[in-house]
Amino acid sequence: MELGNASNITCTNLYDHRDTARVLIPLVYIVVFIVGFLGNALALHVIRPNLKKMNSTTLYSTNLVVSDILFTLSLPLRIVYYANGFHWGMGEALCKITGLIFYINTYAGVNFMTCLSVDRFIAVVLPLRFSRFRKVHNVKYICVVVWLVVLAQTLPLLSMPMTNKEPSGHVTCMEYPNFEKVDNLPVMLIGGVFLGYVIPVMTILICYSVLCWKLHFAAKKNHLTEKSGRSKKAIGVICCVIVVFVVCFSPYHINILQYMVKKLRYTPDCTELQAFQVSLHATVCLMNLNSCLDPFIYFFACKGYKRKILKMMRRQVSASFSSVVRTSPEGSSRDIDAHKIHLNGARSQY
Question: Where are the transmembrane segments (predicted)?
Answer without folding.
Answer: 23-47, 59-81, 101-126, 138-158, 187-213, 234-254, 274-301
